[in-house]
User: Fold this.
Amino acid sequence: MINAMILAAGESRRMGMPKPLLRYGDTTFLEQILSVVCQSVVDRATVVLGAHSQMIRESVDLSQADVVINEDYRQGQLSSLIVGLKSVPSEAEAIVMFLADHPLVTVDVVNRIVGAFRETKSPIVVPVFQTRRGHPSLFARSMFEQLTNAPVGEGARHVLYSNEDKVLEVEAPEPAVLSRIDTPEEYVSHFGTCPRIVAAGRAREEE
Assistant:
């Protein structure tokens, strides 16, 4: 079993509004990522919420995922990953870690990552575009303990760079794996419009 882990618990301070609820066409960042996961060969999806969790649950259909709440989300991304790992069933061979500010990832990229893992059993699989590493990243169960014990300020990145001999890089056909949308300026650059959230009782009512 491959378990997707969608980390959507952050405070979105740089964006100034909840990134999981940012408009992505007719949907939201979080719904787009979850749609990609559900269309891929991933077997199970977990969404980790924290800040704005009630608004997100009221605004996004999360019926296709298991939802866990990180009450300590202010401690950073690693705290969300640890909460998510605790919910992963014992039969899961690996997680594929998605971030809420990377909504451009495609089904093809996810399938390439999972396919490479199933073929090689590499402990860590990351997509690369023109030699640059991107997201999402796959971590086999053998890496879970290291993820849980990683330095708070570094998290999964520390595990990645501490285990270069265990990393398999998979070529991605498009630069979407590098596209992080963390600020209003980055949103405008990608979508040509100012950021807005799609939340119950707000943007949907305004349309």
Notes: The longest strand covers residues 2-8. The helical segments are 29-39, 53-59, 77-87, 107-120, 144-148, 156-162, 184-191, 203-206. The two ends are 40 Å apart (CA to CA). Residues 2-206 form a domain with the Spore Coat Polysaccharide Biosynthesis Protein SpsA; Chain A fold (CATH 3.90.550.10).
